[in-house]
# Entry
Amino acid sequence: MNKSLMWRMILVAAVVVTALIIFLPSLPDVRGSLPTWWPGNKINLGLDLQGGMHLIYQVESDKAVESFTGRLAGSISNEAADKKIALAGVKQTSPTTIEADIQNPADMDKLLSIASDLGVLDKISQEGNKVVFALKNAEVERIKKNAVTQAVETIRNRIDQFGVAEPVIVQQGTDQILIQLPGVKDTQRALDLIGKTAQLEFKMLDETTQLTPPLPDSIPASDADSVLAQYKDKIPAGDEILFQRIVDHSTGAISKRPYLVKKDAIMTGDVLQEARMGISPRTKEAEVDFKLDPTGARIFDQATAANVGKRMAIILDNNVYSAPVIRERISGGSGSISGNFTEAEAKDLAIVLRAGALPAPLKPLQNLTVGPTLGSDSIQAGKKAIILGTLLVVIFMAVYYGLSGVIADFAVILNVIVLIGALALLNATLTLPGLAGILLTIGMGVDSNVLIFERIREELRTGKTVRAAIDGGYNKAFTTVLDSHVTTLITAAVLFQFGTGPIKGFAVSLSLGIMINLFTALVGTKVVFDLWTSRKKLEKLSI
Amino acid sequence: MELIKKTNIDFLGLRKIAFGISLVLSSLGIICLVMIALGRANMGIDFVGGASANLVFAKPVQLEKARAALDAAGFRDAEIQSFTDKTKLFVRVKKLNVPVEQVIGRIQAAFTNAFPGNPSRVDSSSAIGPTIGKSLQTTALWAIILSFAGIIIYIWFRFEWKFGIAATVATLHDVLAVLGVFFILHKEITLLVVTALLTLAGYSLTDTVVVFDRIRENLKMRQKEGLMDIINLSINEVLSRTVVTSLTVFLAVLSLFIFGGQVLHDFAFAMLCGVVVGTYSSVFVASPILYVWRGKKGSRLIKVSMLTKQPAREGAKSLAAAPAGLTASQSTVKKTAMSEAGQPVAELNTSASDQSASAQPSRKGKSAKGKKGKKARAKA
# Structure
C-alpha cells in the first residue's frame, strides 16, 4: 500500500468516526445510553414533528404613540427656542395630546406654524396663551400599525440570532404576535430575549442640582416607589430619577441606587452598529462591547468633549447599568456596557441590542406548550416514504453499477450521517420537509458517483485497464462534479447571506450537503476503489 | 447494466419544436408570476395569512380526525395543534374572502358535524398575518436574483459568458415551467413549494453543467468540427448520465409523492415536475441556446486561454493524485495509441505536445492525450 492511499484512508476513517460521534446523540434509542461526556447535540425536531412553545404577546402600541407624542413635544420646544419664542411650558397631557403655553401672545402665530409644519398635529383648542394639539387619528393608526409590524420583524431578528430555527412568528389580530418555537431548552431565557424592549439610552447625570435631603446611595429594592414619591416635586422639570440594580454577590441581596439624570437622552440605541459579548480586561467580567454608527460616533464624540469630568448614565429599559465619569473625549464610537452580567446574559443583551429595540413594550398573554402540527399518521407516512425512497435509490445503484454501486451507496449513507451530525452540531431544526430534503440529498448525492462511474465506463470502453480507467474516470469527472457543485454552492451561499428564517435553514442544509458530498464522492469512494485494486490486479470491474 | 447504449440523436434539429414547448411553459410561469404580483394567485397561508382559533372541546380530540373533518369542510391546509390537555385545539386556516367570524363559524360547524357527541366552543379567534411577510419576500427575491448573478459569473469564469447566460436561462425556464404547471392545476403555492423550486433550480443547474462540461471539452478537442455536430455529439455522449442522474432523484421523489402523505405531496409533485423539466431543459434549452447564439463566424464559444492551459493541468493533477497508477496507465496509453495508430488524424490540437500530436487518436482517445504528453515529458 502506498503512502498517499494510507493517508487518505486515515482521513476517511477519521471522518467516519467523527460523523458517528456527532450523529449518535440524534438517535432517540441510543441517546439515553450515551455517557454524559459524549459530545454533540441531539438534533431538534420542528414544530410539525414535535410542537414546542406557544406564546402570544400583546404589543402595547399605545405606548409607541405616547412616546411619539413625547418626542413631538420635545421638538416643538426645541423649535420654539430656535425661533426665540418664550414658552411658559410644553407638556404632554395625554398619550396623544400636547399642551403649549406661551408668555407673549404675539408669538402665537409662530407657534401654530411650528406645530402645523410637523404635519401630524391638529389644533383642538386655543384659550388665551394656551393651545392644545392632538395627534391626527390617521397618524395614531399608522404608528400603531407600524409598531406591530416592526415588533414582528425585531422578534424575528432576535430569534434568528439566538439560533432557534424554523420558528413561527406572525401577527395575530391587530396588535398581537403569535410565536411558536420548537425545541427550546431554556424557556425563561427565550422569554427574556423576546420580551425585553431593549431601549438603550445615554443620558447625562444632573450633578448641579442639590436635592434636600440628598439622594440616598443605596436603598432596598422595594423602596424605589417611595423614593420616587418623596422627590416627585423636588426635582427640576427636565430631570428624572432612575435606578441602578445592584446585586451583592456574597449574599444575593438586591439593592437599588437612585440617580438624578437629565430626561433628554444624548442618544439612543438606534445609532448602534454592532454589539457583542466581551470580557472586561479590568474586572474579567462579561460585558457588552458596542460600536456606534458614524452618526452615533459623532454625537458621542461631541457629547464627551463637552462633558469631560461629568458622569453619563448608560440606561437600558429605564434601568441604569452604569454611570461612568467621562475622563476624556471619546472618538471612534466604541464603548462597553458592564453590569454584573453572566456570559449568557451579556450574549443575549448583545443580541437584543443588535436586533434593535422593540417600538413598544410587549405584554405576555399566553405561554403554553403546543403539540405538533402533523398527526402521527402524517409523520408515519412521511417516514415510510423517506425510507422507501432511500431503498429505491440504494437498490437502483447496486443493480445498475454492481459492486461499484454498492460503494456509492456506502458513500451516500456516510454523507447522510455526516449531514445529520453537522446539522445537530449547528443546532438546526429538522422538519418533515427537511427530512424529505435529506432524501433528496441521497438522490442527488449518488449523482456525483454516477458521473464518475459513467466516465470510468467510457474509459474502459477505450480498452484501458481497470486501474487506469478508475484513475482516469475520477480525474476527468472531477471538473464536472466540482463545477456542478460550486454553482449550487453559490446559490446556497447567497440564500444564506440574504435569506432569513426558513430560507436560511434551507441554505444551511443544502450547502452542508454539497460540501460533504464532494468529500464522500470524490475522496471516500476513491479510497475504497484504490484499496480494492491495490490488493490484486482486477481484470474486470463490476461497474 | 446499461439503460442507454450509444446514441446518435439530432437534438439540435429538434430545437424549434423544443423552443415552442418551452415558450408555452415559460409563458404560463410568467402569467403565474404576474398573478402572484397582483395578489391573485393561489398562495399558501405562509404568504397571505388567514385566521386562527382556539377551540375547547368537552372531551379529548384526535388530531387526525380533526384534520379530516376540516379537510372535508374545504380547509385543505389547516394547521391543527393540540395543547397539553387534548381538549384544546389551536387551528390556523388560510385567508378566505369572508370575514374571520364566518370562517371560524364554518370551522366550528365542521367540528360539530364530525364530533356530534363532543361539543366545542371557540375560546378566542383572530385574523393572523403571513409568516413570510412582505419584507421577507423582498429579501428572498433579492437573494434569488443575486444567486443567479453569482452563477452567471462563476460559469463565465469557468466556461464563457454565453454558457453562463444559457445555463441561467435554462434554470429560470425550469422554475417558470413548474410554476406554470402549478398555475394550470390551480395548486396552492406554499412555502414548501417555493423550497422545492429553489432545490430544483440547483438541481437543473447541475444537470446543465454536466452537458456544458462535455461541450467545453469537445470544443477544445475538435476545433475543426462544426458547432452543431459538437453539441449534438456532446449531448449524445453524456445522455446516459443525464438520464441516470435524473432517475435517481426521480425515484427518491416518486416515493415521497406516492407515500409521503398530504404534507409532502405538493412538494414532491413540484420536484417531480422539476426533475423532468430540468433534464429536458439541459438538453433542449441550454445547449440549443448556445448554438442559436453562436455569434458571427470567428467568434468562439470557448476561452482561448483554456485551449492551452487545460490539458496540461489535467495531466499534472492525474500525476499528483495517482502515482501508483503511473506505470499501468502508461502502458494503456501506448496500447491505445498503437491500436488507433494509422487511423486518419481528425484534427490537431494546438495545445498538444509533439508526441501526442503524432499519435493523435480519434475521439475515444482524446482523454489520454494531455496526460500522455505530460507523462512522456516526465519520463524524459
About this structure: Chain B has two domains: 12-39+134-292, 50-128. The two ends of chain B are 42 Å apart (CA to CA). The domain at 12-39+134-292 of chain B is CATH 1.20.1640.10 (Multidrug efflux transporter AcrB transmembrane fold).
